[in-house]
Design brief:
The structure holds two protein chains of two kinds. Helix content of chain A is 31%, strand content 35%. The radius of gyration of chain A is 17 Å and the shape is globular. Chain A folds into two domains: 110 residues, Alpha-D-Glucose-1,6-Bisphosphate, Chain A, domain 4 (2-Layer Sandwich), CATH 3.30.530; 31 residues. By secondary structure, chain A is an alpha+beta fold. The model of chain A has no long low-confidence stretch (mean pLDDT 81). The radius of gyration of chain B is 23 Å and the shape is elongated. Chain B has a three-stranded antiparallel sheet with strand order 1-3-2. In chain B, helix 2 packs across helix 4. By secondary structure, chain B is mainly alpha-helical. Classes of the chains: A alpha+beta, B mainly alpha. At the A-B interface, strand 1, helix 1, helix 2, strand 7 and helix 4 of A face helix 1, helix 2 and helix 5 of B.
Chain lengths: 145, 118
């Protein structure tokens, strides 16, 4: 899904290290993400995630404790997940004091990644509202017309 | 929606300039490329290119009226895209809520243990 971007965030009443462990430790991941997670959290590591009777490989991209973690998934069967055939999930953790963490997740296709940083920033500035809100607003305007 | 059409759809919406065009079409109904070009900070040629991409993604349809070509948004397709996006967003909201619950419970547990050890 080229170009698709989802951005969501949540404020968590826990230190950044605790949130980091929750999103990166396989036995924790299996409680909020897949039913079964086999993963070594190292850049380039290949793992596997199972969802009910479906599943697929994932590849870890960035591991920068305790603030950045990303992996690729949703690529075609039999292919290596890489830029262009998969979705990149990126977690960004920002401490807000000792016991509070802002956790942001983006899921995006390859097109956005290929953009220069300045272009990405411009895009983020112009689209603060996020894709879901943007499309929802357009659909709402159309429905009223 | 097939994977291929999804690709075209999300690519079409990913570009800020195309969103601008889409915004104008949504708020003004049926308009021509020249009308659009008068309201965006890019060339008439660029507008035409963006319209082609939006049309290919199924988001925009065209109709000839006299010597003019008029464009409008295909509401059904936009609605479908909005719903697909809302579903994906809701899925991540559920995951983030679960992460929040787990992390906050682990933090409470750590605090209790530290207190006990002291």
């Amino acid at each position: 899904m080229a170009g698709l971007v989802i951005e969501r965030e949540v404020l968590i009443e826990a230190p950044v290290e605790v949130v980091w462990r929750t999103i990166t430790e396989p036995d924790q991941m299996s409680q909020w993400f897949a039913d079964r997670v086999e993963l070594v959290v190292e850049p380039g590591a290949h793992g596997y995630m199972e969802f009910g009777d479906q599943g697929g490989p994932v590849v870890v991209e960035t591991v920068d404790p305790p603030t950045r973690f990303s992996f690729r998934w949703n690529h075609p069967r039999g292919e290596e997940p890489a830029a262009g055939n998969s979705m990149l999930v990126e977690f960004t953790l920002t401490p807000e004091g000792d016991e509070r963490t802002r956790l942001r997740v983006t899921e995006s296709g390859h097109e956005l990644l290929a953009w220069p940083d300045a272009e990405k920033q411009r895009y983020a500035d112009e689209h603060q509202e996020g894709w879901a809100e943007y499309l929802d607003r357009l659909a709402g305007v159309l429905a009223e017309r | 929606m097939t994977a291929q059409t999804d690709d075209e759809l999300w690519s079409a919406i990913a570009d800020p300039s195309r969103r601008r065009v889409l915004d104008l079409l949504v708020s003004h109904g049926e308009v021509s490329a020249s009308w659009l070009a008068g309201r965006v900070p890019f060339s008439r040629q660029a507008v035409s290119k963006h319209l082609v991409v939006l049309e290919r993604a199924g988001l925009v349809s065209r109709r000839k009226q006299g010597r003019e070509v008029l464009y409008q948004v295909r509401a059904g397709r936009l609605d479908q895209a909005a719903r697909a996006m809302a579903q994906l967003a809701a899925q991540w909201d559920r995951r983030l809520a679960a992460i929040k619950r787990l992390a906050e419970a682990a933090h409470a547990e750590n605090k209790k243990r530290n207190h006990h050890d002291r």
